[in-house]
Amino acid sequence: MHRIFSFFFILPILFCFHSISMVNLVSEAEMITFYKEGIEIELSKEEIETIDNLFTETIKDSISMPAYGVSIDSLTKEEMKKGLWIELTYHKTFEINGMPFDSLLFKVEQNCYGINLIRGQQGIYEGRCFYLDFGENTFDKLYDYLMSINFEEQEIELDKEEEKEIETVEENIEEDKKEKLLKSQKTILEKLN
User: Fold this and answer.
1) What is the CATH number of the domain that holds 82?
2) Are residues 166 and 139 in the same domain?
3) What torsion do the CA atoms of 29, 32, 33, 34 make, to the nearest 10 degrees?
4) Which member of 12, 13, 25, 81 has the greatest number of CB atoms within 10 A?
5) pLDDT in the model for residue 61
6) Which residue has the higher pLDDT, 178 or 147?
7) Could you tell me if 48 and 111 lie in one domain?
8) How far apart are CA 130 and CA 68, in angstroms?
9) Is the pLDDT of residue 6 over 80?
10) Are residue 55 and residue 112 in the same domain, yes or no?
């Protein structure tokens, strides 16, 4: 009986590990991408540093373990169209508890004491997740900070950049049309002569 009790007492410890490796994974991220309501938002270097600090502060005493959740790529990408999401992308593939990934994705919500870290491989989010229990901490500070960023202004800037690109493409098309028209006129004139 004592052996069975010991097994069930030790089993959760075997599946859990302190999140210090998760903190390292944040600092090792090659790129941090932020999404609001499905729109990728470009962040400044200072904003990324603040997000990194707030995330690291939130998870410093957390415990990570395999989650019950399983990601299905199409459903995950559909869910990303709602709320605030952060994606950490790495230059190499990591493996924790036999679960490989080259990116991690998670949703940022208020009053959140833990998250599912959704594993990505080559842009596809399929398979088991990690669960990160924050203990007494929450994502409230990170959520509030992300909500304080002026997204509308950034979206307008992106639209202006896109408009410039479209104008440039349209100008190039017009120039190509003019060149083709001149060539065809020359060809017709040569045939007539």
Assistant:
1) 3.30.1490
2) no
3) 130
4) 25
5) 83
6) 147
7) yes
8) 8
9) no
10) yes
Cα 180–chain centre separation: 44
**Does 154 share its domain with 175?**
yes
Both tokens of 186, joined, read 């020359």
The answer on 33 and 111 residing in a single domain is yes
pTM of the model: 0.66
Q: Which contacts qualify for 148-155: CB closer than 8 Å, 24 or more apart?
A: 149/41, 149/43, 149/47, 151/36, 151/39, 151/41, 154/41, 154/42, 155/39
Question: What value does the mean pLDDT take over residues 103-111?
Answer: 92
By the 8 A CB rule, do 128 and 99 touch?
Answer: yes
Asked if 116 and 129 count as a contact pair (C-beta separation under 8 A), the reply is: yes
Q: Which domain, by its residues, includes 191?
A: 150-193
Count of the separate structural domains present in the chain = 2
